[in-house]
TrEMBL record, chains A, B:
Protein name per UniProt: LacI family transcriptional regulator
Keywords assigned by UniProt, alphabetized: DNA-binding, Transcription, Transcription regulation
Boundaries of every HTH cro/C1-type domain copy: 3-46
Any one GO molecular function term: DNA-binding transcription factor activity
UniProt entry tagged with the keyword Transcription regulation: yes
InterPro entries referenced in this protein's UniProt entry, alphabetically: Cro/C1-type_HTH (IPR001387), HTH_LacI (IPR000843), LacI/GalR-like_sensor (IPR046335), Lambda_DNA-bd_dom_sf (IPR010982), Peripla_BP_I (IPR028082)
Length: 332, 332
DNA sequence: ATGAAAGCGCTAACAT
DNA sequence: ATGTTAGCGCTTTCAT
């Protein structure tokens, strides 16, 4: 492997000049730049990442913690990951993947200077990683919103607003009894940030609008979806409108609603909270609120890289939910 | 951040002694080791990854290229990724994630000494990354089997044997006309390694056993599955046995088979090629051949790390497929 | 069993 | 506009 010294020699300049040509941190004359670039190309030179990190305290790597827990839809998770990787590459950064949900991993990559910045996904209300993140010297961004985000930057869809939006939409359509068919029990049990927030917004607006709004967890299996729908109709037989926040169960919930005579091939009295691609892939036209995973992942990178030069105050960014009507009978 | 020098000072030894305590590359007296370990703990010392990489030419990072292409089931992909990350951490390595399907990314991380080794997923028969990989100085393992693997190590399920196994199983059960409902057209069009191999094995055994075996691509949507089943029955109306190699379409294929009277709630004349978890999540009991993604990912790590010390000959490892019968009517 | 010292390849003052 | 030089923090000979 050629070193910067080899390039310098070949171009008839000093190593620092090569370094500056690469970084653009000082002006270089046209001819010199040409010769250096030529030498780099001729030798196929690539700076040694470790040497660079040692000298500059910059790795150009972002750590991404993606816990793969029970009940999460990996295809949705991967949308966030894709957004992170794509945006990171656009900013000349690579991504180190952490999947184990341990605080040790965070400390290892941070204290070991393996990464310049850290993005954490699948945040819980009372996440044990939060205090650890506060102690790191690298900038950090959470995708999600813990109970106490003090001192930490966060970005996410405004899931609470999404809950309100869905409840409001169903109420507007004239429903007096509605139900949230939510994530799997495991997701609820650990108080996953987004799940809690959806329920909060949903319940608040249901109360405010004077509609009865039950909440039912839902396993991702066909059978789980059937049980959830049946449980709702057992508890609140007058339920006419549904809000589904569960990508994997969604088709089966729709199927069961059809079986119970609450939906038809023409449409269902349902608002879904899921990636648009999931909504449009259903057998019936479906009104939905998008979860823009790629966008959020990209914003997370922007935020965390902004924190790289110059301390900046923690900031929470919640993207406004957008409801798109897609025909379907949403009136009772 | 404390350095190795700080630790040495605190323990009253030289930096090299600290280094040797950490690496275990030479014997250290009991008391010295104790003092050093104490100092490390007291100071919360972590070696600087870049400095270490510079001095030792080892990064303890594995590059993992996971192209997220159209038609692949991300949840299956993530099983492989999980296997890689888990096994890598077990061997004290981290994973750098590359999702863009460019050869440039490989060269960047390899030539820049960001990684010790590289694992590549979603290999095509005539993959443009293959020649690039041959030129890298890092050991490489492909998950999948390109047309010409000369000089490269590969690991995968033996998909060709899986194709043979499925065809043989259906033939044994008495089917005379059978059909492979395969991956989406996009996957087939780019000659994804596993897809081609399944078809090869399937067709070979169908011929050998004298059964008619058609092959039909299948979109992942409910409608796509319906069309695929209908197309099969149009081309070969006497078809009684099916081999489904498409996780996402699987439930819809089963549904359509039931609609067409070829399957019942008790079972279907189907062999599925998919992760066992996918097979058992279906509404009917389903005979299947497992795709052990986590295992394969783990083996890939073992192989690639084995290549780290001492050149070793390229090796191709194909895991034997295992068919598990789960009731269901597989007889015609 | 331990220490001293020479790099590893790069960046960023500090020169001129 | 360019060159010189002193590290960055670690590993690993070479000594003893």
């Amino acid at each position: 492997m050629p070193t910067i010294e080899d390039v310098a020699k070949a171009a008839g300049v000093s190593a620092s000049t090569v370094s500056y040509v690469l970084s653009g941190k000082r002006s270089i004359s046209g001819p010199t730049r040409k010769r250096v670039e030529q030498a780099i190309a001729d030798l196929g030179y690539r700076p040694h990442a470790g040497a660079r990190a040692l000298a500059s305290s910059r790795t150009n790597v972002i750590g991404l913690m993606v816990p793969l827990r029970a009940g999460v839809d990996v295809s949705v998770v991967m949308q966030f990951v894709t957004g992170v990787v794509t945006r990171a590459r656009g900013a000349d950064h690579d991504v180190l993947l952490l999947t184990q949900d341990d605080t040790g991993g965070l400390e290892r990559v941070a204290a070991g200077s393996m990464v310049d910045a850290i993005i954490v996904m699948d945040v819980e209300a009372d996440d044990p990683r939060v205090p650890v993140l506060r102690g790191l010297r690298q900038p950090t961004v959470l995708i999600g919103l813990p109970h106490d985000p003090a001192g930490l930057s966060c970005v996410d869809l405004d899931f609470e607003a999404a809950g309100r939006l869905a409840a409001g939409h169903l109420a507007d359509a004239g429903h007096r009894e509605v139900a949230l068919v939510g994530p799997p029990p495991a997701v609820l049990a650990r108080h996953t940030s987004y799940a809690d927030r959806v329920i909060r917004g949903w319940s608040a607006t249901c109360s405010a609008r004077g509609v009865a709004g039950v909440v039912e967890a839902c396993e991702t299996t066909p059978d789980g979806a059937r049980r959830a729908v049946d449980a709702v109709l057992e508890r609140a037989p007058g339920t006419t409108g549904f809000f589904v926040h569960n990508e994997q169960a969604l088709p089966h919930v729709l199927g069961r609603l059809a079986e119970r005579g609450l939906a038809s091939a023409a449409g269902a009295p349902v608002v879904a909270l899921c990636p648009t691609a999931v909504a449009t892939a259903q057998a019936v036209p479906l009104t939905s609120i998008d979860i823009p995973g790629e966008v959020i992942g990209g914003v997370a990178v922007d935020m965390v890289l902004a924190g790289l030069d110059g301390e900046r105050p923690a900031e929470t960014r919640l993207l406004a939910p957008v409801l798109v009507e897609r025909g379907g009978a949403t009136t009772p």
